[in-house]
């Protein structure tokens, strides 16, 4: 059944009770709009992370308001704060416990690059221990910056070959 | 009592030597007498609160190299502090008696001191590292240890293997704690800071009138 219809929306006259779409589009649509964060709040960035969750900035508008404190239930780890070498293995351990597909946002200067902590105790960027999808600058970043990072991540997820990955997995 | 605590201490312990100090009375005592001195100050001198246990590293090649420093406060005489310093006998493996028996609060102070300087507190109930992880091979506040750190292994073996990550020396050039001459001159980087021709009473040259500060 080939039609010339290019609408993504449901058109009962053309399609009857069937909606036709690409598997990637459907899977990514589901993933982008309920991206539950794992709040890896390690320092002052976590305060801004809390502000993002509160009414004024309201991360719920982007489907990411369900902060899960269990890695098994979360999709996106937000590393908010300074990661010391002592803490780094725990960050990786929690990342390993998250179910795939999973993403990481490095929030703020410390998580992205070590920030002002150029010292023996501090990991110089969390991307040495977990793969980071989006980096957010700022010390700490404004809540809007984290929302922007989430939107950027959603945009990235939207263009992932999800079906192909599912089949090969 | 704290007012004449210094003389009482000198009477009781003639081996205590006045330590140069710009604020509070301070004494150098032999490390063997430090427990007795602190107990005397706590019980007879009303210095009932142990504020801090820390240490000084004079650097490699000096002797005595490590000095343990105690700060006591008298809560019955507010603002009355006394400082007791004791040089550790062994420069390679410094040791000091633990004062956890006198003040349980000394526990974590001494653990931090051990972590950062490598001073072993004898009689401590649980002398483990407190900031760095178990097995970290250095004592970071020793004089010869660089701020950037020394390359070593991550604390957890399987994660170090999986990620291939090591503890590396942090890049110091251009960092916030490095003021190397010839880099950024703040007066030039912020030329506005040089212009002092205007103030809150006199208007800025490019502004005709004073900005009114509203209450």
**Largest sheet geometry of chain A:** 4 strands, parallel
Specify Rg of chain B, calculated over alpha carbons. Answer: 25 Å
* Proportion in β-strands of chain A: 5-15%
Give me the oligomer status.
heterodimer
Q: What share of the residues of chain B does DSSP label as strand, in percent?
A: 15-25%
* Helix-residue proportion of chain A: 25-40%
Largest sheet strand order of chain B: 1-2-5-4-3
User: How many angstroms separate the termini of chain B?
Assistant: 51 Å
Query: Main beta sheet of chain B, described?
Result: 5 strands, mixed
Q: State the separation between the terminal residues of chain A, measured CA to CA.
A: 30 Å
Tell me the series of helices and strands of chain B, N- to C-terminal: HEEHEEEEHEHH
Q: For the largest sheet of chain A, list the strands in their spatial order.
A: 1-2-3-4
Mean pLDDT of chain A comes to 89
Largest interface: A-B, 17 and 29 residues
Q: Structural class of the secondary structure composition of chain B?
A: alpha/beta
Q: Helical element count of chain B? A: 5
H-E order of chain A:
HHEHEHEHEHH
């Amino acid at each position: 059944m080939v039609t010339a219809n290019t609408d993504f929306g449901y058109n009962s006259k053309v399609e009857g009770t069937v909606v036709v779409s690409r598997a990637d589009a459907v899977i990514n649509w589901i993933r982008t709009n309920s991206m539950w964060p794992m709040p890896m709040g390690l320092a002052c960035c976590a305060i801004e992370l809390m502000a993002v969750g509160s009414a004024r900035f309201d991360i719920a508008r982007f489907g990411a308001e369900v902060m899960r404190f269990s890695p098994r239930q979360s999709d996106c780890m937000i590393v908010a704060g300074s990661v010391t070498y002592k803490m780094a293995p725990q960050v990786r351990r929690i990342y390993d416990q998250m179910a795939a597909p999973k993403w990481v946002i490095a929030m703020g200067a410390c998580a992205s690059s070590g920030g002002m902590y150029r010292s023996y105790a501090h990991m110089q960027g969390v991307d040495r221990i977990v793969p980071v999808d989006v980096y957010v600058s700022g010390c700490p970043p404004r809540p809007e910056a984290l929302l922007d990072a989430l939107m950027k991540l959603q945009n990235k997820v939207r263009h992932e070959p999800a079906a192909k990955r599912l089949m090969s997995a | 009592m704290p007012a004449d605590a210094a003389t009482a201490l000198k009477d009781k312990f003639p081996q205590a030597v006045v330590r140069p100090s710009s604020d509070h009375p301070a004494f150098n005592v032999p490390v063997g007498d430090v427990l007795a001195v602190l107990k005397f100050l706590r019980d007879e001198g009303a210095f009932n609160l142990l504020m801090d246990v820390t240490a000084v590293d004079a650097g490699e090649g000096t002797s005595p190299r490590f000095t343990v420093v105690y700060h006591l406060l008298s809560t019955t005489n507010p603002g009355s502090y006394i400082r007791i310093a004791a040089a550790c006998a062994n420069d390679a493996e410094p040791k000091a008696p633990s004062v956890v028996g006198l003040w349980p609060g000394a526990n974590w102070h001494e653990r931090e001191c051990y972590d950062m300087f490598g001073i072993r507190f004898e009689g401590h109930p649980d002398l483990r590292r407190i900031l760095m992880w178990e097995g970290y091979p250095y004592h970071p506040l020793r004089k010869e240890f660089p701020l950037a750190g020394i390359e070593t292994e991550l604390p957890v073996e399987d994660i170090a293997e999986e990620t291939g990550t090591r503890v590396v020396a942090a890049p110091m050039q251009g960092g916030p704690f490095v003021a190397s001459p010839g880099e950024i001159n703040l007066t030039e980087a912020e030329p506005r800071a040089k212009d002092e021709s205007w103030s809150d009473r006199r208007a800025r040259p490019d502004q005709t009138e004073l900005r009114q500060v509203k209450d």
